[in-house]
Task: structure prediction
Amino acid sequence: MYKILQVTCTENVKRISSLFCYRIVLLHIHLLLHTMAAGQDRWQKDAADQNFDYMFKILIIGNSSVGKTSFLFRYAEDAFTSAFVSTVGIDFKVKTVFRQDKRVKLQIWDTAGQERYRTITTAYYRGAMGFILMYDVTNEESFNSVRDWVTQIKTYSWDNAQVVLVGNKCDMEDERVVSTERGKQLSDQLGLEFFETSAKENLNVKVVFERLVDIICDKMSESLDSDPSLVSASKGTRLNEHTSSTNANCQC
Ligand SMILES: Nc1nc2c(ncn2[C@@H]2O[C@H](COP(=O)(O)OP(=O)(O)O)[C@@H](O)[C@H]2O)c(=O)[nH]1
Ligand SMILES: [Mg+2]
Result:
């Protein structure tokens, strides 16, 4: 009798736990679909807004927890939260900047968890014209990963993609392990522009985006000067189709 009761109990526990697991899986699928639907909606809304001269896709990459989401949040919403909330799903924000009378629409993509496994897909890199490659000045490992991230960019993005190196969390002076000099030295070796920033204290955040836009514009002008067919032919360029030929000579 005791044995029968025990078996029944065990089976019930199994049934309940499998039901519980099933519900968790359903919840995850629901969340994923919701995130994708939200992304899709935004895509459609953004695509409909044609009021810009150029559109640049920018990616923020770097190890997990260096501050990518906070950096984007600070730039797009002018806010900061110290709570660590792991990025879920696909996320991007759109911000329009004005550079020398040109409306430049930035579509800024935040890595969504994949950075932990360094499995950011080619689809994510496709069409990106600029990268903000971020490390954390209080985290040696994130600094040591910078070269790997550069390799990823070289492998998956188009040749003209522009990159700036960013050492974030420069407000945490007491916990700093990567000096400004080492950051500068690495950026020189890699041929990248370099900034130290703080998403928390809002230091250099806007500067980084604006500088990256300027670098992309300069590169576009250079490419056009040498070969005007380059811009329309390049797979990564996301110029507005309605952009006139005079506009295409970005005067940023
Ligand atoms: N002190 C300080 N903390 C930061 C800064 N940027 C991000 N953080 C914190 O670092 C943690 C990870 O940030 P998060 O943006 O989620 O990193 P991500 O994984 O690269 O997206 C969070 O607790 C943030 O509040 C910064 O500039 N200064
Ligand atoms: Mg994040």
About this structure: The longest strand covers residues 91-99. The mean pLDDT is 76.
